[in-house]
Amino acid sequence: MRGPNEIDFWRGFALLTIFIDHVPGLFFENYTMRHFGVSDAAELFVFLAGWSMRLLVDSKKGRMGLPNAIMRLETRALTIFFAQLIITQMALALTAAGAILLENPLFLEWNNAAAAFEDPLETQVAIVMLSHQLGFFDILPLYVVIIAGAPLWVISDRIWKWLPLLLSMTLYATVLWTGINLPTWPVEGRWYFNPLAWQAVFVLGFMLADSKGPAAALRRHRGKLRWLGLAGVAAGVAVGVSDYSPDPLMVPDPKLFFMFDKTFVTPARIFHLLALVALFNGLYRHIHYWMRPAALFLSMLGRNSLYVFCVGSLVALTSQFGRYVMEGSILVDTAVVLMGATCMGVTAWVVEWRGRSRAS
Question: Per-residue confidence at 27, pLDDT binned at 50, 70, 90?
Fold first, then answer.
């Protein structure tokens, strides 16, 4: 088991934030990062995944062989795929149980679940194909596609250090220009997290974690970049607090270049994310010194991110039903956050306990 570190800490922070944001109407939702900027925890989570991939394939112990790296990434994508299937079926079971116990069939329509009960044959096929996704359970399909395609970035990086960035930004600009996205079925629509656009966030994490190439040039100007990050974060706070969003009718074409759209993770969201990274990079050592228990707890969540995310998503869904029944209050919302953090913490502890037991 690796010790607490900056990547795991911020990943744990993102996991806890995502849990809070996945319970609509929660009092504490008003104080998560999405209300004080343009980007939110989803961008941070994907960015850190790209950063982690760099640490995996180019560790301090040496560069991982290409066949081994590809196998590790593809098996990870398969693991995430199976996790998505499991939590989707559990979420549908929880939704059905809520409708039965509370005698409210309207619950069956929550979170895009209606198709699974109205047209179960096609929807079950679609769930396996990742073309039908429940609301708040749609980030793992993004991960499956991004991690499955990650060998492209590893291979191109070993051909030329700037090539992944060039390929990624070309694809990203094309997607924003054309508006292409993956379709959903049997409910007609598009993926909420467009992997063709979100790969840009992943690749930026992969590139900035490198000790060579573009990242090396940026590190030489770390002080200046921190001031730019402060300005970007301040601008994000002003946008978030004022609830400003560009009017689609007032911006020029192609409009996605100027919007704050989450599906296409538009440039404003990426710029804000990079400002956060520039400003808060290196802050962890101070957090670990002054708030050691929080640093250790969030790092533990981040070390076991897949398990923690799955459990947190199911607890968040259960909390949605609970808040509906109890009508929500500051006490209820506090209990929800404490319960969610406890369940996520216990999950991470159990996973690590199993690991220690096997090792011994």
Answer: very high
Q: What is the spatial distance between Cα 313 and Cα 173, in angstroms, rounded to a whole number?
A: 32
State the Cα angle at 137 between 136 and 141, rounded to 5°: 130
Helix/strand number for the chain, H first, E second: 16, 4
- Torsional class of 243: left (φ above 0), alpha (ψ -120 to 50), beta (otherwise): left
Query: Residue 132 carries which DSSP code?
Result: S
The secondary structure of 24-78 as a DSSP string is: TT-GGGGGSGGGGSS--HHHHHHHHHHHHHHHHHEETTEEPPHHHHHHHHHHHHH
Q: Which pair of tokens denotes residue 40?
A: 């939110």
Other C-beta atoms closer than 10 Å to the C-beta of 75 total 11
- β partners of residue 58: 63
Count how many domains the chain has. 1
C-alpha span between 181 and 60 (Å, rounded): 37
Task: Give the Cα separation of 148 and 78 in Å (integer).
Answer: 8
pLDDT per residue over 322-334, tens digit each? 998 888 789 999 9
Residue 1, in any domain of the structure: no
304: nearest Cα among 343, 351, 247: 351
Residue with structure tokens 């710029």?
Answer: 271
Q: How far is CA 25 from the centre of its chain?
A: 20
| pTM of the complete model | 0.95
Considering the domain boundaries, does residue 304 fall inside one? Answer: yes
DSSP state, 105?
G
Q: Which domain holds residue 16?
A: 6-359
- State the residue for tokens 């929550």: 110
Q: Which helix (H) or strand (E) holds 91?
A: helix 66-101
pLDDT of 220: 78
Helix, coil or strand: residue 331: helix
Cβ contact 258:251 at 8 Å: yes
- State whether residue 98 is helix, strand or coil: helix
**Residue 253 is assigned to a structural domain of this protein:** yes
DSSP H or E stretch at residue 190: strand 189-190
Q: Is residue 282 part of a domain?
A: yes
Question: By the 8 A CB rule, do 274 and 205 touch?
Answer: no
